[in-house]
Structure formats: C-alpha cells, structure tokens
Design goal:
Length: 197
C-alpha cells in the first residue's frame, strides 16, 4: 500500500516470490496497492517507515508514483541519515544496525496516467488508460450512431490534455477540450455548427 505500508509495517512488507508475481503483467492498476498516506507527510511517520525498513534490512526503494510520491521519496532520502540517528538515540536500533543501513538508494518511476512528466516518452499507466478510453469510445460510438445522438466523454488527466487529445485523434472526435488550449469565446456556436454538419 505504498507509503502506508512502509509506515504501518508488519504484513505490509513481505518478499515477492515467483508465486506472488505470476499472472499479473496483464492487469491494469497495481496489485501491490496504492494509498494516500498522511502519516508519511510528517517526520514522525517517516521515522516509523525508516524503522520498518531497517528492521527488514531494506535500503533500496523503487518508488512508482506521481508528484506526491516522488516528492515524498526525495524528502525521505534527504532525511535518512537524521532518521537513523534519531532511532539510535531513542534506543530503537543499535549503532551497528544504523551503520549497516546508512545509505538509502531510491529509484523513482513516474506512474501517472497524465503523461505529464518531462524527459519520458510515456509514463507508467498512460498506455493502459488510453486503451481503456478507446474501448469505451468504441462502445459509445455504436450506441451514438444507432440512436443518432451526440455523447460527451470526459477523461482523466488533471492539467494535462494528453489522454483527451490522443483519444480524440484516434476516435475522430468532432470536438475536443484540453486544458492547454482553453476554448475561445463563441465556441458553443462553432461546436453546434460542426455537430450539425
């Protein structure tokens, strides 16, 4: 469950094995879970997370997420030495354990359907989100044609119109709104004219 699992520890931290990762490659979303974690935004929460990692001798993290997850990883990495010092001072771990786990290595992978991260062609989640959108558009198009109706479809993407733009191009949408290019005044008349055609 992401940082929630780090903070809570216990059964949330377990070794992946052949059986636990079999038959998951085709699944959308994440089988390891995802959760917003208020506790990790506090130093006390990060201290608990550090304690749980040290207990399992884990000093390498692969963080998959968006802005919040990657920012949290950077803060955690920068505080690591101080967190270990505090754990030693409080008697929760020994000096020897702290020395053995003195370095925290983090790899950050952008997991965001928005595809809004500079320096990567496509973020993790974008492709499966786009395929899901196209499946829905194909289903809706059949209904729209048989009933001679117009449908409005809203897709996710927060401040990034990538999914809307690409799915609009792929489906031959008649009208498209994206945050990067807000509609000009009088768009309603133009849209009605286009749909009328």
């Amino acid at each position: 469950q992401g940082y929630e699992g780090l903070v809570e520890g216990g059964d949330n931290i377990k070794q992946a094995n052949w059986l636990s990762v079999s038959n998951i490659i085709q699944l959308g979303g994440t089988v390891i879970g995802s959760a917003r974690c208020k506790a990790f935004t506090t130093r006390a929460g990060r201290l608990r997370a550090a304690r749980n990692l040290v207990e399992h001798s884990i000093t390498n993290l692969c963080v998959i997420g968006g802005d919040g997850s990657l920012t949290g990883a950077d803060i955690f990495r920068s505080e690591w030495a101080g967190l270990l010092e505090e754990l030693v001072r409080d008697g929760q771990i020994s000096e020897e354990v702290a020395k053995k786990n003195c370095r925290l290595n983090i790899v950050g992978l952008v997991g965001s359907i928005d595809n809004d991260f500079c320096g990567t062609d496509m973020t993790i989640g974008t492709d499966s989100a786009l395929h899901r959108i196209m499946e829905v558009i194909d289903a809706i198009t059949t209904t729209a044609q048989s009933h001679q109706r117009t449908f409005v479809l809203e897709v996710m993407g927060r401040h990034c119109g990538y999914l809307a733009l690409v799915s609009g191009l792929a489906s031959g949408a008649d009208w498209l709104f994206i945050p990067e290019s807000p509609p000009e005044d009088g768009w309603e008349d133009l849209m009605c004219e286009r749909l009328g055609e």
